[in-house]
Design brief:
alpha+beta; globular
């Protein structure tokens, strides 16, 4: 499984529909796409949400990102993440 950082922005319509039920639905979408939600945070600044999830690969992460946007009205920028120790091994020699 690969870790992905998902930064979400609410649309004006999505803000009107904030609820615990929608959070549960978001978790279900991640699972349906083969993923596991590790953590989710409400944030301020350039993103409204920060989600950390694991997926088998890029395709599943993209599928979840698009499904979340379509169903919940939250646009996600999804980025793969590698623990710094693994990064050091890859590039540190």
């Amino acid at each position: 499984m690969t870790t992905f950082i998902m930064r979400g922005r609410y649309s004006a319509e999505a803000i009107k529909k904030i609820s615990g039920e929608r959070t549960v639905r978001g978790r279900q979408i991640v699972q349906q796409c083969g993923g596991k939600l590790t953590a989710a945070y409400a944030t301020l600044g350039c993103a409204d949400l920060l989600v950390i999830a694991e997926f088998p690969g890029v395709g599943e992460a993209m599928q979840a990102s698009i499904a979340l946007t379509k169903e919940l009205g939250i646009a996600f920028a999804t980025t793969p993440a590698l623990p710094v120790e693994e990064f050091d091994k890859l590039v540190g020699g």
